[in-house]
Design a protein that fits this description.
Elements (H helix, E strand, L loop, with lengths): L2 H11 L2 H21 L3 E2 L7 E5 L4 H15 L4 E7 L9 H22 L6 E6 L9 H18 L3 E5 L6 H17 L4 E5 L3 H4 L14 E5 L4 H9 L2 H4 L4 H5 L5 E7 L2
Parallel strand pairs: 1-7, 2-3, 2-5, 3-4, 5-6
Antiparallel strand pairs: 6-8, 7-8
Helix pairs in contact: 3-4, 3-8, 4-8, 5-6
Length: about 260
Amino acid sequence: MKTKEILKFFQKLIPMNLLYLLQNIHSSLLFRWILLKGSEPIGFSKKSAMVFSPHQDDETFGCGGMIALKREHGIPVTVAFLTDGQGSHGPDSQIKEKIIQIRKQEAVKALEILGVETSKIHFLEKPDGTLQDLQKEQREQTIQQLAELLILYQPEEVYVPHRKDCHKDHEATYELVKEAIAQVKIKVELLQYPIWLFWRAPLFIMLKVQDIAAAYRLSIESVQEKKNRAIASYCSQLENLPRSFVKRFVGSYEIFFKAES
């Protein structure tokens, strides 16, 4: 069964309130285990970085502390958003146009707090929810756009959502970026950041041991308050997200998984 089918199966069996409770318990236990037992500490890196974010907020939730740390030391960080984020508030076309602009403004504000210049923020504006279903020509065009950004900035580290992040745009972002890196043939350190992985993936059903191996924890205590302010900039999103989901991202550590580039 695919990720989406498994989630629908659980949603049919379990009332929504109970499902949120179970997801919260599962997420907390898995995150705590990785934090305390299943990860190694990773030191602050002075390497330049590029963050690929499927939606406006993923970069701050997953990498906000890392971004702030690097920028405080004057290290270049570039952020590219693949989709326009229009799908977060339903199918109404007028609302979609409005939310696209709102989310873009929120992203610029959040990244300003984290220290990223507006000139280092790129919006590719692919329709939200379509990355996994791009036609061949659209897919090749998107990979070419990503490749051009990689060539332009020559990052030493690249951050992408986890390859099994339980969201089709997130998983597609991982694959598209991997293909772009292979196309330009540059040497980078590829790190995966989890967003929905702990919340949506029932352990041992969608995850295997190798999926959560090579885990590293980065202390962001010195910039924790800055990251939390950046998260708060995403007002349009916070009103629709479970509090317990958001709570996982406001702690003093970020988790990353190394991947082969």
